[in-house]
Amino acid sequence: MTRCIMAEPDYIEADNSELIRPKKIINPVKTSRNHQDLHRELLMNQKRGLAPQNKPELQKVMEKRKRDQVIKQQKEEEAQKKKSDLEIELQKRQQKLEQLELDKQKTEDERENAPEFVKVKGNLRRTNQEAADAEDS
């Protein structure tokens, strides 16, 4: 036996024609055509086993970037396959030259950033070697 806090309306039990019976309020969202179409589409997808994708926007963007990156990489690989032997050799030489330039730049930066006593020591060593070479000749 459950206790109801609210009283039951008396119009349910009695058929009083004098009473105005309340009508169910129409929900404007559910009656809209867009809502009905969306609901129908969701039901059809559920029957087919296709769940709606509830991925956050950031995840969608990251997946799209990853797909684009894979496609770009595939195109580069195809372009690489189409290159002739001469182009491949030229590209290897260009990479070697760039690597040499980077190495030179690093050594120059190291020399410039070296403390003063290291520079002086290098100069002394160089002058000693030049003096020794001059005596040997």
From TrEMBL:
The keyword Coiled coil is assigned to this record: yes
Top-rank taxon, per record: Eukaryota
Keywords noted in UniProt: Coiled coil
Region (Disordered): 44-86, 99-137
Basic and acidic residues compositional bias, start-end: 57-86, 99-114
PANTHER family xrefs: DOWN REGULATED IN RENAL CARCINOMA 1/TU3A, PROTEIN FAM107B
Protein name: Protein FAM107B
Gene source species: Geotrypetes seraphini (Gaboon caecilian)
Gene designation per UniProt: FAM107B
